[in-house]
Amino acid sequence: QLYRDARECLTLLSQRLGSQKFFFGDSPASLDAFVFSRLAPLLKAKLPNGKLQQHLKSLQNLCNYCTSILSLYFPWDGASAPRAAGAEGGEAEEDPHKRRNQLLSVLVGLVAMLGYAFLSGIVSIQRGGAGPAGRRPIALAEEEEEE
Prior knowledge:
By secondary structure, the protein is mainly α. It has helices at about 1-15, 30-45, 50-60, 60-75, 80-95, 100-120, 140-145. Pfam families: GST_C_6.
């Protein structure tokens, strides 16, 4: 029943779209965004049961609709050669110091965590050997036993 209803819904969408570029003419509306968000994964994803996907692929105007939106608003989508070549170069031009900034972020975070650990007493540094007045440092297990 669910597949039958979904097939009927796709057929009705196909009839409503007809030969138009978008559902309400030449420019997209919120309905186009909603419908595309449901159709594109159904059209592009690899599904275990492809009945509904096959029905969608048989509705050529809906397939063209999805392809048109993908190429218009998501030109980097797909395994095209310009994407593979341009993605690396474009990223480097966008932020030439990206790797340096990432490393600095990690270092600042590490220093902040260590600073907090020392200041809150979670971690303390003790010198080896006997402490002042011949006292030796107390280990964690010994502290618990004394309490």
